[in-house]
Specification:
33% of the residues lie in helices and 16% in strands. By secondary structure, it is of the alpha+beta class.
């Protein structure tokens, strides 16, 4: 075991406390193979987890690939695809991508979480997601504010599927996984598709809050925009490829990394100093590690975080866990970035 791998395993130990499966991977320099380690160490292969909202970065890449190919323009308004949507003539794909479109989220809705507990294997339809969120109106006129929105990315996924004439799962396989030789990254579409993932006890899938294995009960359709499953090493490779010109054009990457401020005030304990939003990217241009770009994700059973630090020579790190309570994947990533900062 290399010194880096041993140190990363020590970081995992500190956050996991011997509970469940977790993994972390890093790509140190452009195009290199990732260094990965995981727990329990007795597992012969790196475990796979749900990435949850890290999937938004992948959706953004698919949209920008379609722009690179001349199939759409991210400054087009949504009248082309959703003329029935309120203010669709004023709402652009760019605004959906950076959460400035005013589309409400279902995360704060008690009825959403109750429905997941009552019927974890029977997700809402696209129509019901719409009816419970933007069907009741927008939070603000497009372009006049910022508010995180899962349904906004549901609309982006539908647009990508319509324009490319392929399913989201097919697009991820054909445009992301195959070109980068990511053999285990995929889009699960049923409860059965979760069978190869790490066991993930969750209290969010039962009315009495008893633990249930996410793999046996949770339908990935409860994530309105779709969800990717991956080992940490393959998501780290994806971020390395994205930021080193192996997926989208330099023009599209510049657009992806153009930031709008996120209206939160960091506390003294926060390690991100200027939270910002790109296209499918959370970012901080003033972090302790220089500019960082990535995304976090979390839901029943699993948590994930992946960031690229351009200020550290282009390091990409991904941490994932099947520990629902008390495991902070983002802090694992930040601790790994600290390792590289101390060596600069």
């Amino acid at each position: 075991m290399s010194g880096l791998t041993a140190t990363m395993r020590g970081i995992l130990d500190r956050y996991s406390h011997g509970r469940g499966a977790a993994g972390v991977a890093v790509v140190q320099r452009p195009g290199e193979h990732s260094h990965a380690t995981w727990l329990p160490s007795s597992l012969p292969d790196e475990p796979t987890f749900l990435a949850y909202s890290v999937t938004k970065t992948i959706i953004a890449v698919l949209i920008l690939l379609l722009q690179d190919n001349g199939r759409l323009d991210i400054d087009e308004n949504l009248m082309r695809w959703f003329p029935q949507l309120a203010l669709s003539e004023q709402m652009s794909l760019r605004q959906l991508l950076n959460h400035t479109a005013g589309v409400p989220d279902y995360g704060p809705l008690p009825q959403y979480h109750e429905a997941v507990r009552v019927s974890p294997s029977k997700p809402w339809s696209t129509e019901q997601f719409a009816a419970e969120t933007f069907g009741k109106g927008l939070r603000f006129p497009p372009g006049t504010g910022w508010a995180y929105s899962n349904p906004g990315y549901m609309l982006l996924k539908q647009i990508a599927e319509q324009v490319a004439e392929a399913t989201f799962a097919e697009l991820v396989a054909q445009r992301i996984a195959e070109p980068l030789n990511l053999r285990r990254l995929f889009v699960p579409q049923s409860v059965e598709d979760l069978s190869t993932l790490a066991p993930a006890p969750s209290r969010l899938l039962s009315v009495d809050r008893a633990f249930r294995d996410t793999r046996d009960y949770y339908h990935p359709g409860w994530v309105s925009h779709g969800v990717v499953a991956s080992p940490p090493s393959e998501l780290a490779t994806f971020f390395d490829a994205l930021f080193h010109g192996r997926l989208i054009s330099s023009k599209s990457l510049n657009e992806m990394t153009t930031l709008v401020p996120v209206p939160v005030t960091p506390s003294a304990a926060d390690r991100l100093r200027k939270p910002s939003q790109g296209l499918g990217l959370m970012a901080d241009p003033e972090s302790p590690w220089g500019s960082v770009w990535g995304h976090n994700g979390g839901g029943p059973g699993y948590t994930a975080s992946a960031f690229h630090a351009s200020g550290l020579g282009g390091v990409s790190v991904c941490a994932m866990g099947a520990i629902e309570e008390g495991f902070d994947a983002e802090e694992v990533v930040f601790d790994v970035l600290d390792l590289f900062l101390s060596n600069t």
